Amino acid sequence: MGRPTRQRQAASTSETHSEQSNAKQDAEAIDPTSVDPDEVIKTDDGELMHEPTGLILEDEQIDHGPEWRSFTQTERDKKSRVGAPMTEMMHDRGLTTTIGWQNKDAHGRSISSEKRTQMHRLRKWQNRIRTQNASERNLQQALGEIDRMASALGVPDATREMASVIYRRALNEDLLLGRSIEAVATAALYAACRQENIPRSLSEVTPVSRVNRKEIGRTYRYISNELGLEIEPADPKQYVPRFTSKLDVSAEVQQKAKEVIDVSAEAGLLSGKSPTGFAAAAIYAASLLCNDKVTQRKVADAANVTEVTVRSRYQEQLEAMGLEM
Fold first, then answer.
1. Residues 292 and 218 occupy one common structural domain
2. What pLDDT was estimated at residue 1?
3. How many beta carbons lie within 10 A of that of residue 77, not counting itself?
4. Which of 57, 188, 224, 253 sits 20 to 30 Å CA-CA off 128?
5. Across the beta sheet with 40-42, what order do the strands follow?
6. How far is CA 39 from CA 26, 45, 57, 60, 174, in A?
7. What does residue 82 show for φ and ψ, rounded to 5 degrees?
8. Do 140 and 205 belong to one domain?
């Protein structure tokens, strides 16, 4: 009984060695420069390997990570020896140093009054030398304005970065001549919201800005054309979730409102219409169809439009759907 088992094991071992030998021969015969990229995988060690043959194509990869290991966020923060990453939201991209305001030494002990006076003087000089010319002071003021408005609008960091990049481009191409810093900063933030598909209308941006709506719109069109920004028309459906959340209506109304927008847009009713007013009217129409009625005033207030806009738009939308209320 034992002998056949040993024979099977020997045969299996022989087959394994034969497969390994064939794979090795295939790996030696293959040309690394002619392999199919779809067959190349990256191992845990950072090596590039040809998966069918096991051939290592490149094994001297540079590891850009730290030389230490960590298993928790607290441990990672404790071992890290670097500061915050580079960011476009600061005029110096966060590369300059700053002196803290804690008035404590490295051990957490309070420093003497003489040292406090000295550190206060150093902080003032540090803030002065961070901006070396008028252009940097302009950029510092504008980025601070963008950050203030973005915080008021609840805009994510990625959109703030985009707005900062747009403003830097406008500054480098001398598009600020004859225009205020606040107007260009607001226009850059509005353009970034449009590019990142963050639904913020001019009616929402204007109250947090220091310039009027007409100036924002004019400046936005100017920098958009001069910088060649590829911005698609706003989609009313992007505003629906935020407006319905303010109104506290059901998910059925939200889904129905998007359906109303799709049908009425196919009928050509969206052309030349404000996306916020169109979305508000669709929500009101959907609330009527779902028997979850809200008043026109509440819908208008949530979308920051007039009741007349809601009243005229929703009737057109219902007619496009072949309904009458």
1. no
2. 45
3. 9
4. 188
5. 40-42, 48-50, 55-58
6. 14, 18, 11, 19, 49
7. -120, 165
8. yes
